[in-house]
Write a structure and sequence with these properties.
alpha/beta; Rossmann fold; 9-stranded mixed β-sheet; two-stranded antiparallel ribbon; globular
Length: 253
């Protein structure tokens, strides 16, 4: 049976023709995970805490998907006018999902919002808007087509990310107006953009917890096997599968 991984979604409170809450997620995430042999299990803001725990108990990894801004009260700030849409029910669900995953020592991959959520969860903070914080920001607001690359990042060679993709520089897409400000004490920077903005983080205290600011799922589906985005998903799949195999060996013993 294929290895299951939890995948978070958002919820649109007035989505659909009936203007009622509707769960939403770009299908690219499922495509990317299925390509590397994983079976996504959707975890939504409509799930209660007990349901989240039950879902995580049958999964071997977690992917935190991109989406809305995180409520700045989560890192001790009042919202500024440039803050984008927030979704407090999603914040609640994802914080509980991440907590449940870490309790089980599951591998975690955070993408865009998921990367930012990792930092906030572990005690870091965000720039609510890059333009307000730095006077710049255009580098990170991509106007070129979905799936294309936009700028370069430099990767720490000996980081989990560096070992996963096998290179120290790569081209990425960029669709975010927020970014990491203060790095959480237990996290380490593993990639930066040319303007110094943090593009990847990973945990120093967990077996495999990696966050990336870009969207690897938007490009890798059509990429060659040597593409860095695809290699990131392959590395995640390997560590998830290793966890599953270790569990089987322990059960057999």
């Amino acid at each position: 049976m294929s290895t299951r991984v939890a995948l978070t979604t958002t919820i649109d409170p007035r989505g659909g023709e009936h203007r009622k809450p509707r769960v939403a997620l770009y299908a690219n995430y499922l495509d990317a995970l299925q390509r590397v042999g994983l079976t996504p299990v959707l975890v939504t803001p409509a799930h209660g805490s007990g349901n989240i725990d039950a879902l995580l108990s049958i999964c071997s990894g977690l992917v935190l998907a991109g989406g809305e801004d995180i409520d700045p009260s989560r890192y001790g700030e009042e919202p500024i006018p440039q803050l984008g849409p927030i979704n407090p029910p999603r914040d609640v669900a994802e914080f509980r999902t991440l907590e449940a995953a870490l309790e089980r020592d599951l591998p975690v991959l955070g993408i865009c919002r998921g990367h930012q959520l990792l930092n906030v969860f572990f005690g870091g903070s965000l720039h609510q808007d890059i333009g307000v914080a730095t006077g710049e920001g255009h580098l990170h607001l991509q106007a070129t087509p979905w799936g294309s690359h936009h700028h370069d990042v430099t990767v720490e060679r000996d980081s989990r990310l560096g070992r996963a993709i096998g290179r120290e520089r790569l081209e990425i897409n960029s669709y975010h107006h927020q970014a990491i400000r203060d790095v959480a004490p237990t996290l380490e920077v593993s990639a930066r953009a040319e303007d110094g903005l943090i593009e990847a983080l990973e945990s120093l205290e967990h077996r495999w917890v990696v966050g990336v600011q870009w969207h690897p799922e938007r490009h890798e589906a059509e990429a060659q096997d040597t593409d860095a985005d695809l290699r990131l998903f392959q590395a995640f799949a390997r560590v998830v599968t290793e966890e599953k195999e270790e569990g089987r060996s322990a059960d057999a013993g």
